[in-house]
Amino acid sequence: LDNLSEGREFIDLNGQSKHVLGYLQEFLFTPERARSPVSVFSGGERARLLLAKLFSKPANILVLDEPTNDLDVETLELLEEQLAEFAGTVIVISHDREFLDNVITETVFLDGSGKVREFVGGYTDWRRQGGCFPSEATGNRPDKQDKSSKTSVDTGKVESQKVADGTKAGTQSEKSKPAKLSYKLKLELEQLPGQIEALEQEVAGLQERISQADFYSGPPDEVSATLEALTEKENRLEQVIERWMELEEQANQ
């Protein structure tokens, strides 16, 4: 008891005064157990006491490195509940994928080449949005490396052949005039800015909804559907922008 309250009966939590025994009950300590010395606590009880001390301190950011190591099931569930209710920002480094799915709202991925990418949601959401590890993207098996080398050589031959063909074409390629936009393509080009604006508004609306504190506490089906909708809209927006740039370039030739 004194280990947490330093001899006080009440502690301040988010601007409110709370009795220390009532606070410890939130961490699964009965009043009798809370009055016991720390030396008789089990490993799980000591872990819960550390969590109680951590969340009793005023803070707007927490940095947790592998926080689930050596935690029993009760303490792990308690940690997830406390993090879900925490009003500030939490930065977590963990190999516990289920834990990440339960508490994380945004994933930051370092691909090993100096690039950093951000994804909405936890580990499973990162996977759903196309996330993969460098070893999965390149492949480490010898047979894959051999095929990759062979493909690289073949591609080089094809590219060289294209250069040679272009040289043979010579003046004929230079004389050819760029094709003008047809009426249908002109109409498409005029409509694309409106489509881009509409998609940007839809993406912004979904992102705002996902950023709400209680979003991940909603029904799992609705959470998954919203995340999938965001991915779909973002991909569609990227495609429309690329199409607009393509037609705009062709129109200005």
Give a summary of the structure in a few sentences.
This protein is mostly helical and 253 residues long.
Apparent shape: elongated
Q: Got a strand count?
A: 6
Side-by-side strand order of the widest sheet: 1-2
Query: Structural class, please?
Result: mainly alpha
Q: If you consult CATH, what is the topology of the largest domain?
A: Rossmann fold
Please give the CATH class of the largest domain.
Alpha Beta
Give the total of domains: 3
Our Rg estimate from Cα atoms comes to 28 Å
Output the helix-strand order: HEEHHHEHEHEEHHHHHH
CATH architecture of the largest domain: 3-Layer(aba) Sandwich
Helix content: 55-70%
Number of helical segments with 4 or more residues: 12
Keywords: ATP-binding, Coiled coil, Nucleotide-binding
Domain ABC transporter Uup C-terminal: 180-249
Protein name: ABC transporter ATP-binding protein
GO molecular function: ATP binding; ATP hydrolysis activity; DNA binding
How would you describe the overall organization of this protein?
The structure is a single chain. The termini are far apart. The chain has helices at about 1-5, 20-25, 30-35, 45-55, 75-85, 95-105, 125-130, 135-140, 140-170, 170-175, 185-210, 220-250; strands spanning about 10-15, 15-20, 60-65, 90-95, 105-110, 115-120. The strands form three sheets. A two-stranded antiparallel sheet has the order 1-2. It has three domains: about 1-105, P-loop containing nucleotide triphosphate hydrolases (Rossmann fold), CATH 3.40.50; about 140-175; about 180-250, Valyl-tRNA synthetase, C-terminal domain (Helix Hairpins). By secondary structure, the protein is mainly alpha-helical. Mean pLDDT is about 75; it is low at about 140-180. The radius of gyration is 28 Å and the shape is elongated. It has twelve helices and six strands. It is about 60% helix and about 10% strand. The longest helix has about 30 residues, at about 220-250.
